[in-house]
């Protein structure tokens, strides 16, 4: 890890991995489950590994550059944060794993009102704008495909509920209004596979009947380190209450 400046950080390293995919009986699983025409379950689903054997060994180079110009104004985050991450397969391991997986995340915390800074003063209202792009060139193992849906993707959906893809775009907006020593907020998010789900081996998005895109919106309140959110899944028109820890952005 290197600190380029006070606001910039660069991390890098070599990753050596052995990935073994197993079923519920802890047996090596070469393919995922799929629904047969008769309504039963079949083991002829998408391949679980790049090698096709259920076991992968992969060497990759990973790097991350973060530019963080955020600060706290009476406890509210304001400023901007940019993160670029790249994983480069070195062609060493199972089935010559040569690929490039890259991600760019841009987040802006826009202070909507000037306030006097200092202990006991209220937080300012903040508008958060968030964008995340992920892409891959080359042979990407299915378990490293980008997952759409989940608390760190599109809120209100379970992890990967919207699909798995080689290219994704996620957009989000959140407005935070101070209330005493905390804030309430409203948000909207959207994720899209940019038509790349079919490029994942076996097309698990289509096999499991996922849409490849989805949106959500809702309201929440920050309670200490916990976020209580009521989220509506636009794809289904249903809502639910969720408790999350930490920050979304």
Strand-helix topology:
Blueprint: E1 2-3, E2 8-20, E3 34-35, E4 41-42, E5 55-68, E6 71-73, E7 76-93, E8 99-111, E9 126-138, E10 146-148, E11 163-165, E12 167-179, E13 182-192, H1 204-207, E14 213-223, E15 226-233, E16 238-245
Antiparallel strand pairs: 1-2, 2-5, 3-4, 5-7, 6-7, 7-8, 8-9, 9-12, 10-11, 12-13, 13-14, 14-15, 15-16
Would you mind describing this structure in some detail?
The radius of gyration is 21 Å and the shape is globular. Helix content is about 0%, strand content about 55%. The model has no long low-confidence stretch (mean pLDDT about 90). The protein has about 250 residues and is mainly β. Strands 1, 2, 5, 6, 7, 8, 9, 12, 13, 14, 15 and 16 form a twelve-stranded antiparallel β-sheet that branches. It contains one helix and 16 strands. The protein has one domain (about 60-245): membrane protein fhac: a member of the omp85/tpsb transporter family (Porin, Beta Barrel).
In short:
Helix content is 2%, strand content 55%. It has one helix and 16 strands.
User: CATH superfamily name?
Assistant: membrane protein fhac: a member of the omp85/tpsb transporter family
* Gross morphology: globular
**SSE arrangement, N to C:** EEEEEEEEEEEEEHEEE
Please compute the radius of gyration using only Cα atoms. Answer: 21 Å
Q: Which CATH-level-2 architecture?
A: Beta Barrel
Largest sheet, if any? 12 strands, antiparallel
End-to-end distance: 23 Å
CATH topology: Porin
